[in-house]
Amino acid sequence: MRLVRSWVLRLGELFRKERREKDLAAEIESHLQMHIEDNLRMGMSPEIARREALTKLGGIEQTKENYRDRRGLPLLETILQDVRSACRMLGKSPGFTAAAVLTLALGIGANTAIFSVVNGVMLKPLPYRQPERLMSLFLHGRGTDRGVMGVADFMALDERQGAFEHVAAISPSTIGFTLTGLGSPQMIPGTSVTSDFFSVLGVQPVLGRAFLPAEGQIGGNLSVLVSHHFWEQFLRADPAAVGSSIKLDGKSYAVIGVLPWDFHFGPHNELWPILQLQPAKQRPPYWLLTVGRLKPGISETQAAADASLIAKQVHEQFPLSDDSSTMVVPLKDLLVGDTSEALLILLVAVGFVLLIAVVNVANLHLSRSGSRIREFAIRSALGAGRGRLICQLLTESVVLAVLGGLFGLALAYGGVRTILALSPDVLPRMEEITVDGRVLSFTAMIAIVTGIVFGLVPALRCAGLPPGRSLKEGSRTATSGRSAGRLHGALVVAEFSLALVVLTGAGLLIRTLSHLQSVNPGFNSSHMVTALLTLPRERYANAPQVTSIYQQLLERVKISPGVEAASITMSLPPNLLELTNPFHPEGKPDTPGQPAPAIGEIPVGTEYFATLGIPLFRGRLFSDQDRSPATHVLVINENMARRYFPDQDPLGTRVQTGEYNPKGDWYTIVGVVGNVKYQGLGEKDQPTMYVPYFDSGWCPWFVREMYVVVRSASAPEKVVSVLQSAALSLDNQLAIAHVRTMDQLLYESVAGSRFRAVLFGVFAALALVLAMIGIYGVMAYSVSQRTHEIGIRIALGAHRTNILQTILREGASLALLGVAIGFVVALALSRTLAGLLFGVQATDRMTFAEVAALLLCVALAACYLPARRATRVDPMVALRYE
Amino acid sequence: MGERADVWQGTLALMVLKTLQALGPLHGYGIARRIEQTSGDLLAVNYGTLYPALLKLEQEGYISSEWGTSDNNRKAKYYKLTRAGRKQLDKEAREWEQTTEILARFLAPGKESA
Fold first, then answer.
1. In principle, which of A9, A515, A742, B54 could form an S-S bond with A839, CB 3.0–4.6 Å?
2. Final residue of a structural domain among A668, A696, A730
């Protein structure tokens, strides 16, 4: 305690030095006077009295000095003094300071921005109570690693499991709910969840309550929890709104609670209606995402074993279904998904940019310390210790780095916003990406480490020289010696190799993006508008109701001016495949233990192929003749024909989808159409089967959510209003949502690749500019140092083009060496990018060659200016300069 | 040299505290004189070393200081024992006595060899 107290007091002394100094002088003076008076009284002469008093005291200055050491914190004072002198030095050369601070700010800013993203997405724990115990459960072995569950699986788990405090199911495929009764009908994003969902997460509503178990039962009250934002926007932030009811998809739901304003789970969800599950008669379809909160002390493996046992029992209950085990995956892994890899690669790239910045500043520093060698030599001759000098130079560089860090932080703040705006749906957990304490300490750390790293090189060099030699060298125009030149050169080489690595990465990713964008999606995307239409279950209970509304709607849309064609579909290219289903050709019974292949099954309207411009290769398309009586026909794509019917004509073959049932309906293949991408432009072609929506086994259930596709020459907004008015004129409670042009969908589908390409591109541009500045600085410095030598050469008759060539050759050889080293490093590192590439090898020769050529050109361009300056050296001036 | 200085600093602090307890508030010069007299001029140290010691004691909160006027009507900084200082004095005096006692036993001539 006492120690702390005295340290605090000593720290405080820093701020009231002047007064304390006067105080001390007065105290010593009074001491001396009293002593002198006593001495006089004892009969000494005034002179001797004074001398005796001084001797006894031990000298005024020594006493004061000892006193001061005890008073404040001498080490801290030295540091402050160094900082002050560093600031003075930096202020004296504003050009150098500005260049260094800007360079560092760019490097540190970029790093801070990317680290904020990494922090928000990967490092922060999930914003729920005891997030490490939150898990998600998957069925493992049904052809997929992480298969979602069916109702039977979830209900059995909910009833019998012992490893989790609570489990809950989420219906992840729901896009939203049509809200009616509050203004015009609107589609509000939301996800239905079972009653324990909020107990699993450990989230309490700020108003009202969470679901009751009874509400989760079939026949229980329909209730909904709403987001804070929804409550403000639609319920006027009225506390009394809790208890009122709202209409979702035509059904009345009681609003039982409002969630905290910062609650989020998955992207943009506003509504959390209760999910009431009907006991299952069969195991598929699989559509429930299951989450659970582990009991304390239970491990993931134990939980997985327990849940797998239950999955076994479910399999025994439904022997026709696949035998799968249960996998337990931390919820965070599920939410973060596979972004981690790309983020880490970005972090490494941006780290390289920082290294280049550091090398640049070290170079600047080194050039400057070259001209300061004399100053240090004199100081060291006057008795300054080596440590002291190093300390001072380091202080200077740390001050620079801290300044750079501060500016960098401002850049990062803007950068994070830009990144978020650039990538609306690329990053998970976007709400959590902020500049927080951890980010700040990261920035502080890299700033200080950076300062020490780039300060250490010149500091060691400066302080290491024997003063005699430096003073002698310094008498000439500080030709800072051969070793300094070599050091400069090495730094440039390092810069170029780092730049090559970053540029190669950017080149590969940009190529990937351009390949993706030129993939043929299998249809004509121009002049096409798509929108999602959801039919409320209440009023569209059976198949005829569903079919008739779609028919009427399409008829109205088709006769609208400007509309060329219109149809509906459950899945949209290029990446919205909603449903896969196993299929079994007739006469080829399943081999036991080998589940039938699950492939994309898409219920579509009759004119779907014509509307999208998908070519028919063989057979026929759907027509209204297939309606009634239902003909049970299928159209398959070319890939499916080739893969599953390699040496037979698929036309006329009968197949069955879903679980194999000999007495069930058989569908005849009547046509083969072109391949269309439904699982992303980067995916290989996949087998797909199309079925008329009115004849699909999913009608009316899943067919209540369909995309309308319209081809029209008019502007997209016009098409939307046509769609909207057509829908409203048929049913004033229908809302259309997710309006996009097909070109937009194509564009958005490669958002992840674009995000990586753009960021990498920005970093590469930074790296390139920094490397260019670096080589320019070094060459300019070298020319200025060698003015004398060049002058002599010119005087001796060297041709100016010779001089130009010499300088250019020097610069080019540094760049070339850097490029060569970078080449090897890039070859080794680019493999890590392989997973993010499309249509280009990680060791793509063209990319490597282009990048190397670009860097060499940039190097030559950067060297040209100093080289030309060298040829302009006037020999007379250069020689007289000495 | 460092060690001796430490011992000196430690004992000096004790002497200062004891002096202030015996004489009440006193200025630096007075404390120095008193210590010198009490030690019978055996301790010939610079008065200057006293001031950092006083500062340390003050920073630790054992004494407090205030400007006042001396008998000769001279302005001087007076030091005074605080409550914590009194306790510290008791504690250190006890410890010192113990130490000297132990040392005395060690150094007493011939008892063990006898």
1. A515
2. A730
Domains annotated on chain B, with CATH: 2-107 (1.10.10.10)
Q: Are residues A770 and A672 in the same domain?
A: no
pLDDT in tens, A832-878: 888 889 989 888 999 999 999 999 999 999 999 888 888 888 877 77
Under a CB-based contact definition with an 8 Å cutoff, are residues A724 and A676 in contact? no
Q: Are A149 and A298 found together in one domain?
A: yes
Judgement on whether residues A329 and A362 belong to the same structural domain of the protein:
no
CA distance A758 to A107: 17
Cβ(A842)–Cβ(A518) under 8 Å? no
Q: Point out the residue among B28, B61, B72 whose CB comes nearest to the CB of A27.
A: B28
Same domain, yes or no: A308 and A346: no
Give Cα separations from A584 to A315, A337, A660 (angstroms).
20, 33, 7
Q: In a mutagenesis test of the B interface, which of A57, A61, A64 is the best target, namely the one with the most B β-carbons within 10 Å?
A: A57
Mutate to test the interface with A, among B16, B43, B55 (most CBs of A within 10 A): B55
Question: For residue A862, what are its two tokens?
Answer: 């950067």
How many domains are contained in chain A? 4
Q: Assess if residue A356 is contained within a domain.
A: yes
| pLDDT confidence tier of residue A711, bands split at 50, 70 and 90 | very high
pTM for this structure?
0.76
Structure tokens at A311: 């999955």
pLDDT in tens, A800-839: 888 888 889 989 999 999 999 999 999 988 888 888 899 8
What is the structure's pLDDT at A268?
79
Q: Do A496 and A554 reside in the same domain of the chain?
A: no
Q: Say how many C-beta atoms besides its own lie within 10 A of residue A325's C-beta.
A: 16
Could you say which DSSP state residue A522 is in?
S
> Does residue A602 sit within a domain?
yes
Number of CB pairs < 8 Å for A and B?
Answer: 73
Structure-block tokens of residue A306: 């327990």
Per-residue pLDDT of A476-534, as tens digits, reads 444 445 666 788 888 899 999 999 999 999 999 999 999 999 999 999 999 999 998 88
First to last CA, chain B: 36
Residues spanned by the domain of A701: 540-730
User: Which residues of chain B make contact with A10, given a CB cutoff of 8 A?
Assistant: 59
Which residue among B56, B72, B77 places its CB closest to the CB of A27? B77
Cβ atoms within 10 A of the Cβ of B10, count? 13
A751 neighbors A480 (Cβ within 8 angstroms):
no
Q: Are A644 and A625 part of one and the same domain?
A: yes
A259 and A239 together in one domain: yes
A797-811 pLDDT, tens per residue? 888 888 888 889 989
CB contact under 8 A, A34 and B74: yes
Does residue A531 form part of some domain?
no
